[in-house]
Design a protein that fits this description.
Largest sheet of chain B: 13 strands, mixed
Structural class of chain B: alpha+beta
Oligomer: heterodimer
Largest sheet of chain A: none
Helix content of chain A: over 70%
Distance between the termini of chain A: 46 Å
Largest interface: A-B, 62 and 51 residues
Strand content of chain A: under 5%
Radius of gyration of chain B: 26 Å
Number of strands of chain B: 28
Order of helices and strands of chain A: HHHHHHHHH
Strand content of chain B: 25-35%
Shape of chain B: globular
Number of strands of chain A: 0
Number of helices of chain A: 9
Helix content of chain B: 10-25%
């Protein structure tokens, strides 16, 4: 293997590895724009394939999260275009504000923070009851709608919606507290 | 701000905002830094919750398993107390009953029982095949020896209380255990109430006295161990012929070495592997693949012609491989299909192979080989390196079946040769989550992600390994090199896998 090829592979590996560490933030960004978890995951995956292909275009020293987000933004736009739905002007204004919120908030240095949060979340997930887990699995893993979940669990649609809201709120709260506790420990 | 940002975020995510509220939220995000950060954080955590469940991440499943086992463990204690006298009369395997096996069928075993001597159990979690599951074990008397999937071999003498945590971790809270930990299992950890003992490639014993003035004694017979007291938390290395006691207060003191009196277990030697086929993938003048086999039913094994069998104008080439020649694929296609008459795919078997994936291989060039009925979509089990970042570690070994998959943790797409092993524990109710073991370079490759799927009986027909080539449904051509395929009947033990890795040979008996 020639020196230049070896250097190129090394660079690709470095860029891809760092980009993969940003995954929680990128999924969050895509989810914020698409408001659909499975599609957000798909968009991020598509974006990673571009990262692996175009890694040479990334300028070392600049923000990797910003570069990845730009690629992801195109992928999200492609998905939305395929839907061909009419978006009211208020929604467009809000979408721009959301996108801008992520651009202003997310930094390369935050990946560790989200790693800690993911670790905390893992602990909090372990505290869920079987019923709560089943509901979340139905929603995210099996991608059932509220109506389908309601049919499966013998609940009203509104009850499913409220329970999911409470479970997610509980998990968020638990994860934040747990993370704070972990950070406080020496 | 009229309502908390969490409420805004929820409404936004579920499309419950009125047009007026959309504008209010947009303005809030533009003008209020704190609100903006809280909003982004809320959405990112929600996305992480979705990721934790949508990918069925291993961590989530592992936690679920632990909880189920824990709960059953308490139920069993009551039942066990009443039945203990009866069980004491029965031996280890005789005492197994079908219900217990059924109860544990969806758990993933972490070790395999080697032998027992006068063992009387109060509590255990095993299948009739001798697979040991995570959970609490209570050994009244006698000795049991078992091998973790990582390769660590352990002999426990009763009375003893211990928990199997994972293929790389065990907790001993009472009694004595002797360990033999070879290279692939390096890093194996034993937790006691007084200390954590981490293996550095060695043989050692741990003895735990749970009395108030008791402690944990560690005797290092060979190699090194790292001992970390629960109180001091500073690791100390101990070498061969050293012994130490850590008491409840965290004090550490040297004790008389008694390693000479210990019976350190060794990997089980069970003679020659019963049935196997070895395909070296070396070039032959007549265009046929040479194979060696023993024990499988006779048939036209591996009668694939390098042109006709490939069903393609583009045939792989032979070049120098890991051992002799290897089959090189250029990513343009070609898939030799072998008619492997011996072995049903529903039974336990192990597949071992050397692979070399160029560091610049593209995601679409990832499938090493496939098994199963080539004419029916969805039946085949494929072995590849993972190119889907949603489904575990990128570049790690991946097994697909139907809609399910198991992805390992160690990347193999770095241009180097890697020895990969897919072990399948057969039997009824086989599932991807519980019946598949992956090894890379002889080390157990723990899953980074999985989506479970039952391996259905109607696909357990003749095994037809196909070096691909392509994934039947999507036609993804492989790029890289393959060498030295072994298929054995039964699940190979970790040290047998290590033998293949080191010498490219199976135990000859």
């Amino acid at each position: 293997m020639s020196y230049s090829v070896s250097m190129s592979i090394e660079r690709r590996n470095r860029v891809v590895k760092q980009a993969l560490e940003l995954r929680p933030m990128l999924v969050g960004y895509a989810y914020g724009l698409l408001r659909h978890h499975a599609r957000a995951e798909d968009a991020v995956h598509e974006a990673y394939l571009v990262v692996m292909d175009k890694y040479e275009q990334f300028e070392e020293g600049t923000s990797l999260i910003a570069w990845c987000r730009t690629i992801l933004r195109y992928k999200v736009a492609e998905m939305v275009r395929k839907e061909r739905r009419l978006v009211p002007v208020e929604q467009r204004i809000l979408d721009d504000a959301v996108e801008s919120a992520f651009q202003l908030t997310q930094q390369d240095t935050q990946s560790r923070r989200y790693d800690a949060l993911a670790e905390a979340l893992e602990h909090c997930v372990s505290q869920l009851t079987e019923e709560q887990r089943a509901l979340l699995s139905a929603c995210y893993s099996e991608r059932l709608s509220y109506e389908e979940s309601a049919g499966r669990f013998g609940l009203r649609v509104e009850t499913v919606r409220k329970r999911l809201y409470r479970i997610r709120a509980g998990l968020r709260d638990c994860a934040m507290k747990r993370k704070a506790l972990m950070e406080a420990q020496p | 701000m009229s309502k908390p940002i969490s409420e805004w975020s929820e409404q936004y995510l579920h499309g419950d905002l009125s047009e007026e509220e959309m504008l209010t939220l947009a303005q809030l995000l533009d003008s209020d830094t704190q609100a903006r950060e809280a909003f982004v954080e809320h959405i990112t955590i929600d996305a992480a919750i979705g990721s934790a469940f949508s990918g069925r991440s291993w961590a989530v499943d592992a936690v679920a398993k632990k909880r189920r086992l824990h709960r059953r463990s308490w139920m069993r204690r009551g039942i066990t107390a009443a039945m203990i006298a009866g069980f004491m009369l029965l031996g280890w395997l005789m005492a197994m009953n079908a219900d217990r096996t059924k109860d544990l069928i969806h758990e993933r075993a972490v070790a395999t029982l080697n032998s027992t001597r006068n063992a009387v159990w109060n509590e255990w979690h095993a299948s009739k095949e001798g697979w040991l599951y995570p959970g609490a074990y209570s050994l009244e008397s006698g000795t049991v020896t078992f091998t973790f999937d990582s390769g660590a071999v352990v002999a426990v003498s009763g009375p003893a209380e211990f928990q199997l945590k994972s293929p790389f971790k065990m907790e001993l809270s009472l009694g004595e255990a002797c360990f033999f930990v070879d290279e692939p299992a390096r890093g194996f950890v034993v937790d006691t109430p007084h200390a954590t003992i981490e293996d550095m490639g060695t043989a050692f014993s741990v003895s735990v006295d749970d009395a108030a003035d008791g402690g944990s004694d560690v005797n290092v017979v060979d190699g090194e161990v790292k001992v970390t007291s629960r109180v001091l938390e500073t690791p100390v290395l101990y070498r061969a012929r050293e012994a130490v006691r850590i008491d409840a207060a965290g004090n550490t003191k040297s004790i008389v070495y008694r390693g000479d009196k210990l019976r350190i277990p060794r990997p089980v030697t069970r003679g020659a592997v019963g049935a196997y086929i070895h395909l070296p993938l070396d070039q032959r003048w007549d265009g046929l693949f040479r194979s060696r086999q023993r024990g499988f039913k006779t048939g036209d094994q591996f009668l694939a012609d390098t042109r006709a069998g490939f069903q393609s104008d583009v045939a792989p080439a032979y070049r120098a491989g890991k051992f002799g020649d290897a089959l090189y694929f250029d990513g343009r296609g070609g898939a030799p299909i072998f008619d492997f008459a011996g072995g049903k795919s529903g039974r336990s078997h192990t597949l071992s192979l050397w692979v070399q994936v160029p560091a610049d291989a593209a995601p679409a060039e990832s499938t090493f080989l496939a098994f199963g009925n080539v004419h029916r979509q969805g039946d085949q089990l494929t072995l590849s390196w993972n190119h889907d970042t949603r489904a575990g570690a990128y570049g790690a070994l991946r097994v697909d079946y139907g809609d399910g998959y198991v992805t390992g943790s160690m990347p193999v797409n770095d241009g180097d040769w890697h020895h990969i092993v897919l072990g399948f524990c057969g039997g009824k109710d086989a599932r991807l989550a519980t019946h598949v073991r992956l090894y890379v370079d002889s080390r157990l490759d723990e899953p980074s992600a999985l989506r479970d799927e039952e391996i259905l009986p109607d696909t357990r027909e003749r095994m037809r390994p196909t070096f691909t080539g392509f994934r039947f449904a999507a036609e993804y051509p492989f790029r890289g090199a393959l060498d030295e395929l072994y298929i054995t009947g039964g699940l190979l033990l970790p040290h047998e896998i290590q033998g293949l890795y080191r010498t490219n040979s199976l135990p000859s008996g």
